[in-house]
Amino acid sequence: MGHLMGKEYCLDHLIEVAKSIVLAIHKAPQITGKTKIEAEIIWGEDLEPIIEVMGPVANVMRYVKWDYETIKCCHEKGESPVIIAIGAKISSSNLNWNCGACGFDTCREFNAYAKENRGGGHLGGPSCNWKTLDWAMACDWACASAGQHRVDNRIMGSLGFALNALGFMPDMDAKLSLALGPPRDMVYFSREEMHKSMSYEMDKQDMVNCVPTMFTAFPGGGTPMYKTKDDWWAPPEFMGIGYSEAVMEVYQKVLFEQVPEIVVKHADKIAERYRKG
Amino acid sequence: MKKYVEDLNFQGEEYVSEWTPWSPQDIRRKKCVLEAARLMVDSAMTAPCAGGVPSIEAHIVYGQEELEAIARKVEEIAHTQESWKEPFLYEAVMVRDSDVIIFLGNTRCHETPLDAGCGMCGGTLDCGYFYEKKTTKYGLVDITDRSSKRMINGPLCTVRVGDLGYAVGSALWTAATLMVDARPFASLGMAGQKMGYCPKSGMVVGVPVAAKAKNPYVDVNVDYHLINMDKALDNTRKIYQTARIIRGFDYRKWIPKPQKPDGPKTDGPKTDGEDK
What we know:
A: alpha+beta; 2 domains; B: 4-stranded antiparallel beta sheet; 7 helices
């Protein structure tokens, strides 16, 4: 007998659902049959370092901002999402297929290059493409499994970046993460948490920046005007193209100063969990 | 406009069986698999992808001649690489044992990458690894030179390849839900790409689908390309006929019977010619 009320037990049950999803991740079919996959479940206070690392990146990358704000907001409201970290070892090939998809003629050449450049990208890399497919199928089965459990979810590269930076799953060289719940509709799509975070003017400017062809006027003159106002023809605006030192400086600062500062605070504690013996 | 006329003639029967191959009842069964394959492609098309950008194309192929041609291409590829030889030859057998083949490809991985600077392709902090190895002008990749010594003309955008993985994963999830058998194959993908299936794609994965008593894609024996159901059946046709003619009798006149333990010999071999 019992009587479950409220939503708290649903939040607890998310962790059980996450465990079922991890089963699907490990059951996912593979093309090579040789790709090592790992999955971990993280929630509550343990999300805090991850959220912290996403913070500065969110300031310069809009899609990261959306993930960051949503997860942070849910966590602070006491509706912590549960995230499933999905990692794979794809930066070297034990296939000897020599298919050329990576850009090298042989797996041997790829492996030699990968040894020198491993982990150099924001999300790791370099990658064997067939192993990437195996890993992606595991991520897809995680999404499908979550969908069939009717839990709102989204697979995120932003979380993958944070997991990489903080040293989660040190044996894996590619990481993505599936964010799960809280239990309601449209947490990660349409995003109620982001309501009123942008003004109409910012929204419109985003469209002008990101979909410029929609706003281009007659191009026959060679320097087409931009239709950004109702009377767009006077006084006109034009698109400018140029290198922005200021923008690039901000990127560099985030990547090489702000993120490492946060990582240093948490890295030892996280590394301790993976220490063997 | 032509008006939809409802067909209310709802009666009939459909006999379905996997034996004998290519009989009406077997083709009816294959048509059921085709329906499943179409739903699998639906799932592939709606799979998650980076930025919601459409990049997946699919080809559904069926028919005895079509599958035989694909199987032969897989065999051809198998002999080009020592590490492919055995597994790919085994997979060619599985192609012949399939009902429908799905090819899924990514149309952007070689030409219009994500351009997000994730570095997964080459381990750098930008997309430089991809672009340096391609023929480009102001960031536009020229794919008109389609000649390549390689089986796949890399490098490819790893995120787009990941999107292809999502598509294949979703197709396979639906196969599992519908309880039809399916496996993702590299051999089949490369064969399909070389044959022109998924014509706009930089990388293709083949997913054979079947609904038979025995899942064709598991529990294979060694030397599967030499010892399999097709070969065993053909061997039966070869051996059994000969086994008939090494001894004989005119069944209208006499049929051998087992000897009764105690009784007189009534039915043994006759030595005096025909019955009178």
